[in-house]
């Protein structure tokens, strides 16, 4: 195995293991229930990513064992978690400044992860490795998008709700136009 690629895989696995700890820590310190749920969901994603990377490494090079679990779509898992949160709880809780800072920190980390995995995909020597790194870059992009949306919500819930309602109204109007066009 090429030493540079071996180093990339080992670094990628370590990044995911660090991500598990990072998001567990943020989940424990975050006061807002939506933020806490999001970070817990990211922990599960990082575990899944570590399993994928571990499959690229020879058995003797594996480091750390994240807990098992079934791979799921991050968006679907978050939607399920958010649906389970009591609406009154969401309305009563105001974002703490530390929660907002945690999301901003996570945005920066996910942005760096996207760049790392994009570069790793370009340097991969076989299709399986390239596909894995592209998948991981896309997962980081999903986290990045979720975090940006969460930041908007935490900083201005009223605007976020208004924009959401506006998108639903636009979608409804488009459906009517299509039906009667």
Quick structural gist:
With 181 residues, the protein is an all-alpha fold. It is built from 7 helices and no strands.
Give an overview of the whole structure.
- The chain has helices at 3-29, 33-54, 74-84, 87-92, 97-123, 127-155, 157-180.
- The chain has a single domain (3-65, 74-156), classed as Ferritin, core subunit, four-helix bundle (Ferritin), CATH 1.20.1260.
- By secondary structure, it is mostly helical.
- Residues 60-71, 77-83 and 85-95 have low confidence and may be disordered.
- It has 7 helices and no strands.
Topology at a glance:
Elements: H1 3-29, H2 33-54, H3 74-84, H4 87-92, H5 97-123, H6 127-155, H7 157-180
Helix pairs in contact: 1-2, 1-5, 2-3, 2-6, 5-6, 6-7
Q: What spatial form do the alpha-carbon principal axes imply?
A: globular
**Class in CATH?**
Mainly Alpha
CATH topology type: Ferritin
CATH architecture: Up-down Bundle
Mean pLDDT: 75
Uncertain runs = 60-71, 77-83, 85-95
The Rg value, from CA coordinates, equals: 19 Å
| Beta-strand residue percentage | under 5%
Q: Which class of secondary structure composition applies to the elements?
A: mainly alpha
Order of helices and strands: HHHHHHH
List keywords for this structure.
single chain, 181 residues, mainly alpha, Ferritin, 7 helices, globular
């Amino acid at each position: 195995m090429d030493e540079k690629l071996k180093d990339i895989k080992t670094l990628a696995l370590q990044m995911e293991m660090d991500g598990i700890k990072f998001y567990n820590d943020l989940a424990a310190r975050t006061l807002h229930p939506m933020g806490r749920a999001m970070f817990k969901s990211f922990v599960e994603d990082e575990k899944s990513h570590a399993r994928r990377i571990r499959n690229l490494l020879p058995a003797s090079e594996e480091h750390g064992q994240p807990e098992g679990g079934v791979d799921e779509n991050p968006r679907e898992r978050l939607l399920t978690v958010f649906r389970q949160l009591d609406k009154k709880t969401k309305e009563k809780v105001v974002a703490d400044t530390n929660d907002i800072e945690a999301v901003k920190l996570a945005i920066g980390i996910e942005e760096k992860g996207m760049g790392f995995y994009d570069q790793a995909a370009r340097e991969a020597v076989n299709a399986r490795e390239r596909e894995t790194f592209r998948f991981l870059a896309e997962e980081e992009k999903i986290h990045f998008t979720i975090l940006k949306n969460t930041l908007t919500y935490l900083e201005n819930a009223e605007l976020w709700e208004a924009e959401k309602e506006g998108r639903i109204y636009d979608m409804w109007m488009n459906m009517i136009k299509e039906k009667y066009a």
